[in-house]
Amino acid sequence: MTNSNSEDSKNQDVQTFEAGARKMTEKIAEHNPESFFASTEDPLHAAFGAKAIIHSGPSGMPLLGEAARAKLDGMADTPREDGHTLAYIHVPFCETRCLYCMFYQNPFKVEATHAYALALCKELEMWSHRASHATGKVNAVYFGGGTPTAFEPDDLRMVLAAVKKYLPLANDAEITLEGRIHNFNDAKIEAALEGGVNRFSLGVQTFNTQIRQSMHRVDDRDTIIARLDKLCSYNNAAVICDMIYGFPGQTMEIWEDDLKTATSLNLDGVDCYQLNVFEKSPLARRIATGKLPPAADTAMKADFFAKSVEFMTTANWRRLSNNHWGSGVRERNIYNTYGKSACDCLAFGSGAGGRLFGHSYMIERKLDDYYSVIEKGEKPAAFCMAPKANWKLLRTISAAMESGSISLSQIGREFGVPVESMAMPIMNQWIDAGLLTKRGEWYLQTVAGQFWHVTLAQLLISWLEPMLPGYAEPKPMMGMPHGHPGMPAGMKMPAGHPPVHGMPKDGKLPAGHPDIKAMFAGMKMPAGHPKI
Questions:
Q1: Closest CA to 72 of 388, 476, 359
Q2: Are 458 and 465 in contact (CB under 8 A)?
Q3: Can you tell me the distance from the alpha carbon of 131 to that of 134, in angstroms, rounded to the nearest whole number?
Q4: What is the DSSP track for 302-347?
Q5: Mean pLDDT over all residues of the chain?
Q6: What are phi and psi of 51, to 5 degrees?
Q7: Are 53 and 458 in contact (CB under 8 A)?
Q8: Torsion of CA 181, 187, 193, 198, to 10 degrees
Q9: Mean pLDDT throughout 440-466?
Q10: What are the DSSP calls for 213-278, one per residue?
Q11: At 450, which helix (H) or strand (E)?
Q12: How far apart are CA 264 and CA 225, in angstroms?
């Protein structure tokens, strides 16, 4: 699989996400209909030049440090609106760094995770009496990372007890623990179940041992299968595995075997994400120096995606969204379903991202800074994005596009804006290009449209935003995330910084920059954006 001894393979070009996103950003900036049109020749493989963004979303204006904390504090006593609310809790420790991952922040140490668990409980308590956190129900809690399963059993119990004590959980709240199979032993599983976890999301990525080891994943195929079988045997929570397509050396036969293996287990869900190769990732460096072969290009990833749709549909799994599949009735996928919507997402933990009343924010990523602000009794926000006009409408569009279908007429009636007529030039072209079909007032994505749905969503948002009431220049950066930090299109992040899981996840975007100002260093902002 490696070609480290071949002179011809050294210094080879790497197709990175950022390079494609920059080209798409420049094209969108022209803002004429043709800039938003898709190729009609081969919509699945080449509808657009590249993926436009990691997570679609509207624009916002950044506030840093104390200004961010003051803004959030000023909103903390305002009750949340009725509707769904999420909570995201970040655990920023990993035993190893996977080559493709940009979420790596801190090396795992038992004593460090214990100290972090104590601080996390303090943060959960801090605003528990304030209206923004105390009113309304929290419908889903997501422990992401990093590696939440790195917590020791007693620390898992302690943090989960704090979640139940300090957050107003809905009676049927989904509580997800994300993690990896490695070192997720029986004692940790049982502590999680005792604490109320009812959904496990485990990053398998591939069952192929050779590819796993080439990406610095630890456990082999047999170990993964045995531990998944054990976890499922508790029959006490939904068990979901994340799969990634597009790895160097991954053939269609390997990907199909991954799907066959996943669906042969007693899993409740399988999520299929495409690999994104980021400029600052160890994976990009290894490909560039010939130590690994190139990752799949866009056309190859499109074929992998189409195979997953064909395979999972034939296996009679339920389609939960463009990337999520369920078997049986246990998997609800609540957090992922509402994550890109306009709902609030309360964030806790170093590196966590959240959203409150449309304001996206991120908690301090450096542990020392996180601990220091916690000790002052303040919410440790590092920055905050103030929303622009129409953010709720645009986030509603983003979430609908994630689902695979959208009714612009319905959204227009809800917000009193004729968005369908505004979007008609590009929606009709996307139908002609084979990305959408129309049934009644609903636009349905074809398999090609599903593969390109994130780009379609961002293009639609970018097309509509300047036409909407209240829009004003300058146009700020796009795509501020919730939960797993996501990266705006065209952004050049400093070395070691994750592309803002969540994620998340979307290719396992996922970490650690020296301070908040460094995060904006080298950022390519849209035309007209003020200096930071």
A1: 359
A2: no
A3: 5
A4: HHHHHHHHHHHHHTT-EE-SSSEEE-SSS---HHHHHTTSSSEEEE
A5: 87
A6: -70, 130
A7: yes
A8: 0
A9: 97
A10: HHTT--S-HHHHHHHHHHHHHT-SSEEEEEEEE--TT--HHHHHHHHHHHHHS--SEEEEEE----
A11: helix 447-451
A12: 10
Mean pLDDT for 350-374 is: 95
Asked if residue 95 lies in contact with residue 490, where contact means CB atoms within 8 angstroms, the answer is no
In three-state secondary structure terms, 106 is strand
Q: Position of tokens 């130590």?
A: 291
**Chain position carrying tokens 């908690």:** 363
What is the structure's pLDDT at 107?
81
470: left (phi over 0), alpha (psi -120 to 50) or beta: left
* Residue 207, both tokens: 């069952």
Three-state secondary structure string covering 27-45: HHHCCCHHHHCCCCCCHHH
Q: Is the pLDDT of residue 525 over 70?
A: no
Q: What is the pLDDT of residue 294?
A: 95
Q: How many CA atoms lie within 13 A of 422 on its CB side?
A: 18
CA distance to 159, 282, 515, per residue, from 367 (Å): 17, 23, 11
Q: Give 118-132 pLDDT, tens digit per residue.
A: 999 999 999 999 999
Report the distance separating Cα 464 and Cα 459, nearest Å: 9
Q: Whole-model pTM?
A: 0.86
Residues 116 and 90 sit within 8 Å (Cβ to Cβ): no
Closest CA to 308 of 296, 293, 295, 319: 319
CA distance 120 to 178: 17
